[in-house]
Amino acid sequence: MKRLTTSPLLLVAALAALVAWSPRAQAQDKAPELSLTAANQTFAPAELKVKAGQPFVLVVTNNDPKKSIEVENKDLRIEKVVPAGKTVKIRVRGLKPGSYVFVDDFNQSAKFKIVAE
Amino acid sequence: MGATFVVVLREGFEAALLLGIVYAYLAQIGHAESRRYVTLGGALAVLASIAMGVAVSVLSGPLADVGPDVIAIAVIFVAVVLLTWHGWWMGRHAREIRGDLQRRVDAAHASQQLWMVGLIAFTGVFREGAETVLFLWGLLAQLQDVSSWTALAGGTAGLVGAVVLGWLVFQGGRRLSVQRFFGVTSLLILFLAAGLFSAGIGRLQGAGVLSGGDPLWDTSWLLEDHSGVGSFLAGLIGYRARPSALEVAGYALYLAAGSPLFFPGLYRRGTHRNGDVIEPAQTSRV
After folding, report:
1. Interface check B242 vs A, CB under 8 A
2. What integer pLDDT is reported at residue B97 of this predicted model?
3. C-alpha of B282 from chain center
4. Residues of chain B found within 8 Å of residue A105, distances taken between Cβ atoms
């Protein structure tokens, strides 16, 4: 039984090791910022271009006076609430070339696209 | 209205499932009177969600940028630890309870367990709580529009739907035989925790703490993970249409490490007396 109780500890240790090893990319601190605003259930601009492989920061301003939005892209594991009238920075890892659609999870008809090339 | 119904139902689904299981669990081990721990845990989580919602709307700067992510990820891993502990406890004590159908679990064992059950309720509700608060708040804030009233009605219906779901899980769980209940919930919690563990790894990748994140495979042609059945399975067992390599590895690792904890009987078979084991048939027949 003692042997069994160590397995969760091993899991935690494995995870900690992964975190320690992974390149915490100082480059991210110099990551370019891309701004975008949300209002009236739309994002502007509706399409943003980024360099493939380069991490960046999305600066999302929610200009709606009352409604919060949640910027979400399931594939990138990003879900971030931007409260009404607030600006929130979202870090995004370097992307493979392609286009990535983000939605407002609170109002799925509002979308924008990031094109990595 | 339909959209807000779905948003709230989806956010509340996991909490409802966990609360239903935990209430049924207390009824099953003969500690129904300890429900107040669960209720307290859930109620505190609602308060914490509101506080978090307020904090997110008031704060700005780096705290608002990173804070919610740190908390969200921490809550996920705390929930994994608690569920693992719970599963391990159930696995260890299943045989005692099995010995005498509705016999009360040893009081000392149970009381050691109760604050944990309250904590499970807390993490279950708090996990999606702050988001739901902000979402409903947005609806409440613009009640002058007629359309917002229907949206709010949808949100309320979603909340009621989640409560009904939890109630059904509770009623169903209570009616199962003790062994069946332990078998079914152990399996459910094992997969739920594996899914959470893998989701936590995914969030760490999304935040750039762990590297990688490109999908290992793509089953979205079969089942998307953000609509209908897919999102239900995502909440229940952590289904992902496009999982990263680390997420898959984490999921597999959790199942491998967790199943001997959750189902010790399966792994000790033959070395102990018959009465010591959970029948494998009963745990796999779900």
Report:
1. yes
2. 61
3. 23
4. 7
- Tokens for B15, please give them: 């909490």
Amino acid at B167: W
**pLDDT the model gives residue B199:** 92
Please give the residue of chain A at the shortest CA–CA distance from B57.
Answer: A83
- Confidence band of A99 (pLDDT split at 50, 70, 90): very high
**Six token digits for residue A10:** 């091993």
Structure tokens at B104: 């009360």
- Residue B278 is predicted with a pLDDT of 45
First to last CA, chain B: 35
- C-alpha B46/C-alpha B159 separation (Å) is 13
B102, two tokens:
């509705």
Q: Residue ranges per domain, chain A?
A: 26-116
Contact of A68 with A106, CB cutoff 8 Å: yes
Tell me the CA end-to-end span of chain A in Å, nearest whole number.
53
Low-confidence ranges of chain B (pLDDT < 70): 1, 94-113, 142-147, 268-286
Q: In CATH, what is the architecture of A26-116?
A: Sandwich (2.60)
Contact between chains at A24 and B209 (C-beta distance less than 8 A)? yes
Write down the ipTM of this complex: 0.72
